[in-house]
Design brief:
Length: about 270
Amino acid sequence: MSAWTTLYVPGLPPHPGTPVTVDGDEVRHIRAARLRPGAEFRLTDGEGGLWAARLDSLTGNRARCVLLETISPPPDLNVELAFGIGSKQRTLWLVEKAVELGVLGLQPIEFRRSNSVSDAARAPVFWEKARRRAAAALTQCGGSRLPTMGAPCPLEEYLPGLASRRDDLRVALVQHGEDSLPELLANRPGANGWIRLLVGPEGGMAPAEQAACRAAGFCLATLGERVLRFETAAIAAASAVSLIAGPPTPLARRERSRESDAEVAS
């Protein structure tokens, strides 16, 4: 089976041996990968399901395959990434890279300093395009879960919506934060649970917006002294979470297993 050939097919049935019909863009991906009947690859429903599948037939713009067995998907990142509305092209890049990292939630936010962005990612038709970009990124990286994407909303609407959620670590990225993000993730006990990262727009958050974030339970943290574009800051922050507070690597899991075995033996 090709480890890197993954197709996105919503609504996959849960039972091995079930035939599945694939059409549209995914058939073009099958042809681009030069798969032939009998070849094995992977299918994901975008909701956490990942299957090994076998191609049975390929005719015109339609393919027929059979589900073989479930596959353990790569771990997701329990992160909601809220970010200032920016240019469409930069936002699409952000969406793509966030999916590759396993981010589970994306929320565009209207800040005071993002109101003037003319080429901005606000229209529903743009976010349909962003969802297609996310699906393409999911198949490219071999993931199994598409992130939720909230409709763009003002900061003053986003923050009150978090009032009932108290099981998370909240971090707002600012130029002159009170902590560095890596130190905050390493030292806070909540860093192993759900994490909400809030990244301001080009030009940063206004002082009143920073104060509102702090009042809503956000820590103000920095990524360093360099001034980063909003999409760079967002992906750098998500990468830091993945490395410091994300799911353990296979090596770390093996080490924990050895430690557990040693404790049982003693």
